[in-house]
């Protein structure tokens, strides 16, 4: 028997970052929106824990216990006193190390798939607690939709979304390390008074009413200057997307994927074609939001 779980990518429509905390993390007001790009994680009984990965970027995915899917299986097995003997296969479609929570998606997917395969019947709260141990973005990968993340991003409040938003994602060559981007943020704000992060009322209104133009005006990512500082060429990608008619563009999370909000499906195709033709990105993907969280799709 195998269990397959599908898990969405995310874009941060607001990422407000506070000063570094004593534990090295940053307090956030992090508005997550799940988007319709998905990884699929399949769990199958095996003699020992094993990870495989397929998809165009599979070569960039670690297959050892640094993979969040492996860590999810180990964490669930340890809590329930069982042996983590499972083959986890990741069919990867979310850009790797792109700031779209692809690794977090695999962690949430593996957790749900192992829980179903092993019959451990973890409660939603237990699953969320394990997700929070795995990483700041992992709880959101489990719940999907839209949510405000506070603390280091792991404490979630679900948000209402009143419509469908259309996106284009420009995938850059190579990844950006999340700790490196936060480190650059710290360097750029050194000596300045960093305000406590707070969710933007205009942005929450835009989500609630499904108003694309309002959302375009409210998109904000405090990590963007740091990502641009480490990867200055992202400014060319942002310029190409907005010149092609995107309503707004921003770096997705810690980057280097850039996200463009567009009016509708036709505009998405036009902007994706223009981004590809501009030569400022490796590939361009079209998606919509919100998208559901981790969901079992096959047994
Ligand atoms: O929680 P996660 O493992 O995804 O975090 C990766 C890294 O990103 C952390 O080690 C830290 O450097 C940085 N981070 C942070 N503040 C957050 C979330 C992540 O500084 N709220």
UniProtKB/TrEMBL annotation:
Q: Which domain of life is it from?
A: Bacteria
Give the catalysed reaction(s), semicolon-separated: 4-CDP-2-C-methyl-D-erythritol + ATP = 4-CDP-2-C-methyl-D-erythritol 2-phosphate + ADP + H(+)
Molecular functions (GO terms): kinase activity
> Which Gene3D superfamilies does the annotation name?
3.30.230.10, GHMP kinase, C-terminal domain
The catalytic activity of this protein is classed by the Enzyme Commission as: 2.7.1.148
User: Is Kinase given among the entry's keywords?
Assistant: yes
Write out the entry's keywords from A to Z: ATP-binding, Isoprene biosynthesis, Kinase, Nucleotide-binding, Transferase
Q: Which family does it belong to?
A: Belongs to the GHMP kinase family. IspE subfamily.
> What NCBIfam families does UniProt report for this protein, alphabetically?
ispE, PRK03188.1
Q: What is this protein called?
A: 4-diphosphocytidyl-2-C-methyl-D-erythritol kinase
Q: What is the lineage of its organism?
A: Bacteria, Bacillati, Actinomycetota, Actinomycetes, Kitasatosporales
- What gene name does this entry carry? ispE
């Amino acid at each position: 028997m195998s269990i397959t779980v599908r898990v969405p990518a995310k874009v941060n429509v607001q990422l407000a970052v506070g000063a570094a905390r004593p534990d090295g993390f940053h307090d956030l007001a992090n508005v997550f929106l799940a988007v319709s790009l998905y990884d699929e994680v399949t769990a199958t009984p095996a003699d020992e824990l094993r990870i495989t990965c397929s998809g165009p970027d599979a070569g960039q995915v670690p297959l050892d216990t640094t993979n969040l899917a492996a860590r999810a299986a180990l964490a669930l097995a340890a809590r329930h006193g069982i042996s983590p003997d499972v083959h986890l296969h990741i069919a990867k479609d979310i850009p790797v190390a792109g700031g779209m929570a692809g690794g977090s998606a695999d962690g949430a997917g593996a957790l749900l798939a192992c829980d179903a395969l092993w019959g451990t019947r973890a409660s939603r709260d237990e699953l969320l607690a394990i997700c929070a141990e795995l990483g700041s973005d992992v709880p959101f990968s489990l719940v999907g939709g839209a949510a405000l993340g506070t603390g280091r991003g792991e404490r979630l409040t679900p948000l209402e979304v009143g419509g469908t938003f259309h996106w284009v994602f420009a995938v850059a060559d190579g990844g950006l390390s999340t700790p490196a981007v936060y480190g650059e943020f710290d360097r750029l704000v050194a000596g300045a008074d960093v305000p406590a992060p707070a969710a933007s009322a205009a942005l929450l209104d835009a989500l609630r009413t499904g108003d694309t133009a309002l959302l375009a005006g409210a998109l904000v990512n405090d990590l963007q200057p740091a990502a641009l500082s480490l990867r200055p060429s992202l400014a060319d990608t942002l310029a190409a997307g907005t010149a092609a008619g995107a309503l707004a563009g921003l770096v997705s999370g810690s980057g280097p994927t850039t996200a463009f909000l567009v009016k509708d499906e036709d505009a998405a195709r036009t902007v994706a074609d223009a981004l590809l033709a501009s030569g400022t990105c490796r590939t361009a993907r079209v998606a919509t939001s919100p998208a559901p969280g981790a969901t079992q799709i096959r047994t």
